[in-house]
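Q: I have 465 residues here and want to know how they pack in 3D. Can you give me a structure?
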Amino acid sequence: MSEETIRLVTIGRILRRRWRLLALLTVVGALVGYGTSAVLFPPRYTASASVLLPGQWEERELLTQAEIATSSAVVDRAAATLRWSGTSGGELRDQVSAKAADGNIIKVAGTAETPERAQRLADRVAQQFVSFASRVAGDDADSESEEATEPEALRKKVVQTNRRISALASAADPGQTVEGVQARTELEKLRTALQQAMKKLDEAETATGKAGMVVMGPADKPTGEAPPTRTQLVAAGAVLFFLLAVVGHLAAARTDRRLRKEPEIATALRSTLLGTVDVPGERPAHRSRGRGAGAWLRRVLGLDVRWNMPAPLLSGDEAAGRIRYRRVWARLRDQVPSPGRLLAVVPEGDETALLAAGQLAAEAGGDPSASGGDPVLRVVEVPVARPLVPDRGAESGALIVLSAGSWTAGELTGIAEACADAGHEVVGTVVAGTVRARPARTAGRPPRTAAPAAAGGDDATGGTA
């Protein structure tokens, strides 16, 4: 697993090198959100009607009234008055909600497929709620006038009785006889009982007045969809797929086991690192060479080039690049003191290493006597999945050329074992890296170039170093 810290530069690299894939996945996510809005969450509209509850109400009482507004007794009656085909009270119960607002107001909301149906649903439920609450409190229309006059008449009679009691108390024996004291005591008890009865009457009248609920006008016709709207689902799908794509790239980078450091590569191949060489190129040459619709799609989306490879550094001049190749050959001569032919093993698909091996073959030359006894390279590509190296012939060893960050330790071990199985001793490892070429010179002596030679099993020869 890669222990490289995920930084903003990593996110920027994903956006820069995978923008086509990210754009495609974002569009796919938007289409998925649109399909979800059409199938699972069709457009819905919500309208609300307000019901005023006069009098003094506690918070728990308002919550109870909100529950009554969405009860089956109210919603079933609303469904019966609406007479919508194929819609029962049980289905409408999921489309109705109620909540207590400030100022003793119950807001009844109805949700439906069209603004008109939502408005009608909210109005009918509010009306049925008021009617049901009135019946529960006993506030029927037939007894409304009678109940309004009886408490007032009773109150007048209580006032008259209090006056009569006061008169009797004054007419009683003013002395301190036992009979007088008892009479005044009984009269005060009667006065207290009447006051308590009037208090209970006032409380009962207040409770009866609570049932006088009023619908505060018809529900407003909704002008917009209820959340989640189609626009919200489309945006959510696009953002979700984009984030999943970025997180997937980061997770793949964290679990990447391909070796990037030269000492780790040499250890996996159980060989000596001879050095690193540069291959000019604007971007890493890890392109897929497949054909067909799949390969074309990968090239269009940019999947044929790895995104997590570092940007190529700016190369030095021509002489600096050739010095690197010559130093590699100097170390190779120390590893293979006797002249002879060498086998340059390149993992299949590693175009950077293939170009570097061709340049090394050009530096080696085709004739050992002409090149001062230096070995000559024969470049071969070896499949990584099932590595198979040609049997040993005139070669005196194998030189493995590959690029960093392309292969895992297990894959490199397989290549080394294939070389040993074919009778080739691995004399060294060369790591190739991509660099950006400097701008072409406009004046002066043109730089010396060496044509790289690459072959798949044939001899590769070139000019002497």
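Q: Anything worth noting?
A: Residues 8-40+228-254 form one domain. Residues 178-210 form the longest helix (33 residues).
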